[in-house]
Design brief:
With 278 residues, the chain is α+β, with helices and mostly antiparallel strands. It folds into 2 domains: 99 residues, no CATH class; 142 residues, Trna Endonuclease, Chain: A, domain 1 (3-Layer(aba) Sandwich). 40% of the residues lie in helices and 21% in strands. It has 7 helices and 11 strands. Strand 10, helix 6 and strand 11 form a beta-alpha-beta unit. The chain is elongated, with a radius of gyration of 28 Å. 15% of the residues are buried.
Length: 278
C-alpha cells in the first residue's frame, strides 16, 4: 500500500550517498586551494577579492582584484563542495531517522500487531475508496465479470481482488490508492474479437485500457502479443490517447514508483490524457 513511499526514501538515501562520494572526490582534487579563504570589499557596486592563507604561522594575503580569475573560481568551487557535503550529511541523517521511525499502514504489516479480535481474513475490510466518484462506483458494478482461468490468480489486492502477477498487484493497488475506478479482466469486444484486458479504467467519463506484458523476452509470448497489440490499434485504442501499455522481461521488473509515475502522468490533475491527440 505505502511501499512506494519507503522505496522513495531508500532511493533518496542511495542517491545522496553516491553524490556525497562524488563531491568528496571533487573536493580532494582541489587540495591546492584547501587552506585559502576569501575576503571581499565592495566599491561602487563592484566586489574586490583578496585571498588569505596561513603559512609557517604567518597570515598572508594576495589581492585578486575584481576579475573572475581561475584561482578565485577554484576556491569558490572548493567551498561549495565542502558545504554541500555537510548539507548531504544532514539530509542523510534526517532521512535515515525518518525511515527508521515510519510505520507502514499496509494491513499485512499492521495486522500481526493487532489483538486477534481485530484481525479480519478479508483484507478488503481495511480498504478505502479514496473518494472514488459515485459515477465510477456505478461503472464498476455494471462491468461484465466471468470466471476466467482463476487458478492463476494468486495475488490479493488491497481491495480484496485476485490478480495474476506481482506487477498487476502493484498496478491495481496504485490505481485504487488514487481512487481511480478500474476492473480487472472484464470482457470487451474490440475489432470483433472478445478480449479480456488486464485493466479497464474509467476516468472522467472515459474508458482506458491498460495491458501489462510481462514476458517480452519469451519469443512465443512476444509473437502472440504483437497480434494482440495490432488488434487494439485496429479497434481504435491508441497509445497516449486511451491505451496504456507496460512491458517487462526477466531481470527488468517494474516497481511501484515507476507504476505510480505512469498513473500520475495519465490521470494526474495537471494532465488529461487524449487532449493533445484529440
Amino acid at each position: 500500500m505505502d511501499e512506494h513511499i519507503f522505496e522513495q526514501l531508500r532511493r533518496g538515501i542511495e542517491y545522496y550517498q553516491r553524490i556525497r562520494n562524488s563531491y568528496r572526490r571533487e573536493a580532494s582534487r582541489l587540495r591546492r586551494v584547501g587552506g585559502y579563504k576569501l575576503s571581499t570589499k565592495e566599491y561602487k557596486g563592484t566586489l574586490y577579492y583578496t585571498v588569505v592563507w596561513t603559512k609557517d604561522g604567518v597570515t598572508r594575503r594576495r589581492y585578486l582584484g575584481k576579475a573572475e580569475s581561475y584561482t578565485l573560481q577554484q576556491i569558490q568551487r572548493k567551498y561549495y563542495f565542502n558545504e554541500a557535503v555537510k548539507a548531504i550529511d544532514g539530509n542523510l541523517n534526517a532521512m535515515q531517522q525518518c525511515l527508521e521511525r515510519m510505520r507502514s499502514i499496509d494491513p499485512e504489516a499492521m495486522l500481526p500487531g493487532f489483538p486477534r479480535a481485530y484481525r479480519c481474513g478479508d483484507r478488503s475490510v481495511y480498504g478505502v475508496d479514496n473518494n472514488m466518484t459515485e459515477d465510477g462506483k456505478d461503472w464498476e458494478r455494471r462491468q461484465p465479470m466471468e470466471d476466467f482461468w482463476d487458478d492463476g490468480k494468486i495475488y490479493r489486492t488491497n481491495r480484496g481482488e485476485l490478480v495474476r502477477s506481482k506487477t498487476e498487484l502493484v498496478i491495481a493497488n496504485e490505481l485504487a490508492s488514487r481512487g481511480i475506478s478500474n476492473v480487472y479482466e472484464t470482457v470487451r469486444f474490440i475489432n470483433g474479437k472478445r478480449v479480456r484486458p488486464d485493466f479497464v479504467i474509467y476516468y472522467h467519463g472515459k474508458e482506458y485500457i491498460w495491458e501489462h506484458f510481462g514476458m517480452m523476452d519469451d519469443p512465443d509470448y512476444f509473437a502472440e502479443n504483437v497480434e494482440k497489440l495490432i488488434n487494439y490499434l485496429n479497434g481504435g485504442y491508441y497509445p497516449n490517447y486511451n491505451f496504456i501499455t507496460t512491458f517487462e522481461q526477466e531481470g527488468r521488473e517494474l516497481d511501484s514508483i515507476f507504476i505510480g509515475r505512469i498513473i500520475d502522468l495519465w490521470f494526474g490533475d495537471d494532465r488529461r490524457p487524449g487532449i493533445a491527440a484529440a
